[in-house]
Design brief:
With 308 residues, the chain is of the alpha/beta class. The chain folds into 3 domains: 84 residues, Arc Repressor Mutant, subunit A; 112 residues, Periplasmic binding protein-like II (D-Maltodextrin-Binding Protein, domain 2), CATH 3.40.190; 102 residues, Periplasmic binding protein-like II (D-Maltodextrin-Binding Protein, domain 2, 3-Layer(aba) Sandwich). Helix content is 42%, strand content 22%. The chain is built from 10 helices and 12 strands. The strands form 3 sheets. Strands 3, 4, 5, 6, 7, 10, 11 and 12 form an 8-stranded mixed sheet that branches. Strands 1-2 form a two-stranded antiparallel sheet. The protein has a two-stranded parallel ribbon with strand order 8-9. Strand 1 and strand 2 form a beta hairpin. The longest helix has 28 residues. The protein is elongated and about 95 Å long. 35% of the residues are buried.
Length: 308
Amino acid sequence: MELRHLSGFVAVAEELHFGRAAERLHIAQSPLSQQIRLLERDLGVKLFDRTTRSVRLTAAGQALLEPARHLLAEASAVRRTVQAAHHGEVGRVTVGFAGASSYSALPLLTRAVGSELPGIELVLEGQMYTGEAMGRITDGTLDVGFVALPVRRGVLARVVRMERLLVALPDSHPLAQRDRVGFADLARERFVTFPVARGSAVREAMVQACHEAGFAPRIVQEAPDSYNLLALVGAGMGIAVVVQSARNIHLEHVVFRDLAGEVPVLPIALAWRSGNRSAALAAVLRVAERVLPTPDDYHGAPDDSRAL
């Protein structure tokens, strides 16, 4: 029993017309009829009742139809799996992410990979800040991560998003009445922010901007992620400097205000170790290049995957 004979049988069984089935298979009608005769001879049964006007399945043909469809589907799956392995489209890729910057980009990537590369398993590791991700990428325990530039030596990256900083305030705060707030206006405020030990690029940029404005921020509490950080703001524990993507997190009693003056902008990138030869990673990066293009407002090197 050959697969091409089963394919011909299924086409005739579904069309109930040899001419249409032959057209569907892009072959002549005579070879198709020969395939059916060979299959019937091999099985020792008659599969179709044929007249000059009609074609009908026999009881044996009806019994064969679903198993034949199943066998053809299995054969197709085997072919796709082998071809996917050949092209690096089978495997496991670990992805590190943290913060609001990855909340919009990550679903775009995971959905596209799931649709286009079903043989690749994405393992998502959350609450992984830039410093942590860099360390894991460098030591080879993480394949790719969303990080803020710059990256370490030996790590390649491609910018996927530009994030301006802004300030999150309790809605009852006096500064919430303004359209814009300067860093100097925050000198007497209590700050809530991300953990210092985990290498948050947002925290580093906030501290640097405060120092340039002439003061050191008074940090009263840390939070592990953007949602909890904004919950602390809404509870009146303090204010927070966050990236603009945090606007997508809607919590009661929290408002966002643009920062005045020279506002830090963080280039957010996908980063991976230059020596990582994983074919699965390369396939994921090709998908990422299409669904997460470098933003037009990034004015760094044309191709950060080579430049960093």
